[in-house]
Structure formats: structure tokens, C-alpha cells
Amino acid sequence: MTATPVAPATPAAPATRSWVALALLHTRFQLLETVRVPIAVIGNLLFPGIALLFFVVPQPAVAGEPLAAVAAVAQLGTFAVMSACLFTLGAGVAEDRQLAFDPYVRTLPAGAGPRLTGRIVTGVLFCLSAQVPVLLIALLLTEASTSPWRVLGGLAMIPVIAVPFLLLGLAIGYAFPAKAALAVIQVVLFPLAFAGGLFLPPELFPGWLDGLSQALPSRAARDVVVQVTTGADGSAVALPVLLAWTAVFAVLAVLAYRSDEGRRFR
């Protein structure tokens, strides 16, 4: 009687479960590390809401008109995404690189994947949490009104528009030390926000600035979210521009990570 050979079990499924478990562990660790500095969380949550409170609510022509108010909320929600991504990953990565524990973690056999995934998931969670004050202020103090499906669509777009700014945050965090990273983030964040129409609607821009603005990732992200939440016709180039910048920032993040490894582990 011949025994039927049994194919060896493939290790793919256990390996995948182990990778996911490590990514979740790093996510939990990153969240705990961030919330242990309350001012970082409070600043991330409150600044976009304060901007809405002081710059939009006092303007009846904006706060009192439903679609204009929704567009303003979408703009400042996009700014909240940019701010959370750049500060959570950019400043966070740069600060972690100064710790003695960081080189040890990077030499572990799990590799960079679970840790980077944990950072990205943490950034997306903070992007979503930063929308809460903006939505509450809009609900209570403006006439912003749109369908529930458009609200859900706008929230669903948050992880999408966050991707390029998460990658940019990683590139800054791995390229600069902590003090320099904070300065670079501020130099990058606020000009991109102003030129991208996140504080003033692009309809108020002169022609030359509007043309320049449409080539920026901040304007592309803003146009995508405004189109989803208001139903207004959007720019045809917004999504291609967002994808192009995502590719550029991905290359920069990989180069910065490899350069940092070359400096510290050779």
C-alpha cells in the first residue's frame, strides 16, 4: 500500500498574519507615543477648527451659504490632513531617529514594512480625528448643508488625499534632524496651504496664481474633496496632479530612507 504524499503546508498565511500583527503593534506603539504628548494632539485637532471659527464663521457670505460653507469646510479639512501628515510623520520620524532605540528597531529581522505601515496608519487616524472639530463647528455655526452620502464620500477621500502628504512627511523625517525637520515642515506647509486655496478660495486668485495653484498637490487635494462634498464641477487635472505628486514624494521618501540607512548603518 503506497502512502499518498502530502504537500508541505505553505508558510505564506502564517507569515502574512505575523506581518499584520507586527504592523498593528507598531500602530499601537506610535499612537501611544503621540498621545503621551497632549499638546501635539490638541494642536492637530484644534488649529483647523480655530481657522474655521475665525476666518469663515464671521463671514455671512460664506458661512450663511450652504455650498460655500461646505467648500470652506472641505478646504480646512484638507489643511488638517496636510498638517497631521507632515507633523505626525515628518517631525515624528525625525525625533525617533534621535533616540538610541531607533537603530536597534531598524536592525530587527521584521524589516521596515510593518513599522512604516504603522506610521502611515497612525497618520491616517490623526487625519480623520482632525476632521471632528471642523465638522462640529460647521454643523453648529454655519449653514453648511450637503447630503449624508457626500459627507461620507468626503471622509472616504481623507486616506486618499493623505497618501502624498504622508510620503512627503516620511521624506522630510528621514532627510533632516528634528530641529531642521520642524522648520522645513513649516516652510512647506503654509505656502502650500495658501497657494493651494485652503485658506482663501481659488476663485479669488489672480489668473497667474490660479494657474500655478493647479499644479500643486494641495490644490489638487482640495479640488478633489470639494468636488466630492459639494457636487460642483472640479478641475480635470486634479486627480492626475495628485497621482503625479504621489509618485514624486514616494521616490523622495525611498531615497531619504536609503540615504539615512547608508549614513547610519554602513
UniProtKB/TrEMBL annotation:
A Gene Ontology biological process in which this protein takes part is: response to antibiotic
One GO molecular function term of this record is: ABC-type transporter activity
| InterPro entries on file | ABC2_TM, ABC_2_transport, Nod_factor_ABC_transporter
Q: Which residues form a coiled coil?
A: none
**Cellular compartment(s):** Membrane
The primary site where this protein sits is membrane
Task: Kindly state which keywords UniProt assigns to this record, in alphabetical order.
Answer: Antibiotic resistance, Membrane, Transmembrane, Transmembrane helix
Q: ABC-2 type transporter transmembrane domain: which residues?
A: 28-226
Regarding the membrane, this protein is recorded as: Multi-pass membrane protein
Any single Gene Ontology cellular-component annotation:
ATP-binding cassette (ABC) transporter complex
Transmembrane segments annotated in the record for this chain: 37-57, 69-95, 116-139, 151-173, 180-200, 237-257
Name this polypeptide is given: ABC transporter permease
Q: Which organism is it from?
A: Cellulomonas triticagri
